[in-house]
Amino acid sequence: MHVMIFGCGYSGTAIAKALSGDGVRISGTTRSPDKMDLLRQNGIDAFLFDGETMEEGLRRALADVTHLVQSISPGQADPLLRLLGKDGASLLPRLKWIGYLSTVGVYGDHKGAWVNEETPCLPVSGRSKERLEAEEGWLAMGRERGLPAAVLRLSGIYGPGRNAFCNLEKGTARRLIKKDQVFNRIRVEDIGAATRFLSERGLGGIYNVTDDRPAPPQDVIVEAARLMGVEPPPEQAFETAELSPMARSFYGENKRISNAKLKATRFQFSFPNYPMSLAQLWQDGRWRG
Fold first, then answer.
1. At residue 241, does pLDDT exceed 80?
2. Among 64, 81, 214, 217, which is most exposed with the fewest C-beta within 10 angstroms?
3. Residue 251 domain-assigned?
4. Would you give the DSSP letter of residue 277?
């Protein structure tokens, strides 16, 4: 088994840890030479990939890849799909399973209603439209090659080193109040576990990889502050808060994401809701990463 993770960052490294084991080779790409040593420290064969060209060493490594995970955001078009083009079968002759990391942003705004994998996608932002196009491209590649291709639609990712505790410690946590706004979340370790589960069973299709408990974002800050024994930041009205265009765009989408399809495969989340997950992070002492 040889796993290649394109864009082996925060989620990709969690996937590498979940899939690693006896006799499993894990490779990963980064666009930053500085990050190659970090990947190697995690037992990952590191390759540089800038999304524009594929150097010879990476091409050679693809020859025996059995499991491909694509985590790079698409930009104008998915860089890997574009480079593989019609040569995908010859570059990846041993491929058995494809995993594509997408986002629940492809659903767009549903006014707080529940959505599942059958809900029509109405993406609002350009980046979500690009994700949807990339999803379709990877699913098409799976069909063309007779391989299972799984699209993992991820909600807000957090875990060790990226969480409300870190934001409170740095003084960057904000308690923004927007009426009826909710978000789902997902612990990064559950992304790794879900990827392993789907790949081991050769499952393809679209899956929401998200927790059980959509909740107002300010509630997460309050709970983290309670666990830390500190005062939460003061409430701020969303309408008058200074936000980047990207941050404001997130609040323009309101929906509750169902994970029932993934659960129906008998996958079990280790961190199904934010209160127990935050408590575990705090008690474990690994919240700083």
1. yes
2. 64
3. yes
4. H
